[in-house]
Every structure is written in structure tokens, then in C-alpha cells.
Amino acid sequence: MTTQVGRLNTLKVIKEKEFGMYLDADQLGEILLPKRYIPKGLKVGEEVEVLVYLDSDDELIATTETPKVQVGEFAALTCVAVNQVGAFFDWGLPKDLLVPFSQQKNRVEEGETHLLFVYLDQLTNRIVATTKVDALLNREEAPYRAGDQVSIIIGDKTNIGFKCIIDNRFWGVLFFQDAFRQLRKGEKTMAFIKRVREDGKIDLSLQEVGYKKVRNILDDIMDYLESQGGEMALTDKASPEAIYAVFKVSKATYKKALGALYKDQKILLSKEKVTKK
Asked: Same structural domain for residues 222 and 251?
């Protein structure tokens, strides 16, 4: 099995020294896991999950620390320094992640947060990143249908909603009306495909589309009522934040669900409370 630089690998410990353990990194040979990163109780012959990358001396080294992003992935990271080489971003490891000037869509300043893509420079074998992400997305026809669940990364806020990266492959838009809670740039979350337009653009929703999203929380509401002794103050007048904190849905969906339960004569509704019948 090939060991990948810049990604998590499961490698076997082949020998132990005072300063650390050496791991069998396949085609890369033996790589040191420094003593400070060795999990308690790890022994020769056992396997350990590590990230392989170049240290400050450009030597391959292993760490059990988990980075915020791996090679081949997108993420929103914060710039911590800028010098004559480029901008450096905090990606959770001692050696910061470089975005060379040539790979900056717009000049990066210290303290800014940018969406970027991490890759392995084939000439230097160094892990670097680029903020020129547009050309790396929408390279194929979107394979999605309405209702499909996907993984997204929240991008820039626009006048209509949020740009989002879908499954590390496509751009999508999450309109404000479909984003019923506060979101932050770089946040990773699950979403649902609302529609794929004829021009290939993708609309997203944080909750399931259609009546299915209502049907899926009916049991949750009844279970919660049961746990609260048969009544609760979370009526259809409650704030969107209070509703999301309990049921993880929008206020509109919650109101439809209460209406369905009332129609089925499973609950009673008043201005003050919801009561189980």
C-alpha cells in the first residue's frame, strides 16, 4: 500500500529509539515519529495512524496530530503570517501551510480567512495550498438529485446566501431562507440538494426537502413531549433558535409538523404550550 504525503496513513512501527519510533512508510522508506507524538503504550510491530509531511528542515516526518485539512481537500483557514515567499496559514501543525504568491487569487493579508485547496507540489514534494479554487470545482456534470444528502463547506456570504463547496467537487448556493441558523465561513456540515438547475447550478438546503423533512421529525416531537411529561412550552410561536436547539429544523418545518400532529389528533395546541393527547 502506498503511503501518501499530506494525508493520514496507518503505518507499522518497525523500531524504537530514545528519540522516537521509526515507521514503515512503504515506498518512502523509514520515517521518524518523534517521541512527543508517540501514543502511550505503542509497541514495535503495532500500527499507528499518522500524517506524513515535511518538517521545517524539509525532511519527511510523521505526527499523530490531526491537521485541519489534508492534501486533496478544501478548507477555510486563517493567515497567520506573510513574508517574501507568500502567506502562511494555520492548519493545526507546527509548520504552517504556505500559499505562494503565485497561488493567491487576491493578495492575502495576515488575519484574513480564505477558502483554499491543499495539494502536493510535484516538483518540491512540499505540501502547499492555493486560493484559486474556482478552476478546481465543477469539472464534471453534477450527479445529484433533489433530496440527496451531501457534505458542504460554507464559503463566502453573498447578497442572496452562502457559496458552498459540495463534496470537494462542486459549487453550490445555500440561500438565506434555507439557512435557518447562524453559519460561519469554513464550517463543515451536512446539507441536502434542493435542486440542480438546467445550467448546472446547485441549490442547497440545511434540511430535507419536501414533506419528508416534516414527516421525519413527527416522532421526535412526540418523544420529546413524552420526556417532558406530556407538555412543552415550545409552541409554534417559539424563536427559530429555540426550535433549532431542540429539533434541528427550521421554524417553518416545525410549524408544519405541529399542524400535522394536531390534525391527527395527537396533540393539543395553545398559545402557551403543546400538550400530548
From this structure: yes
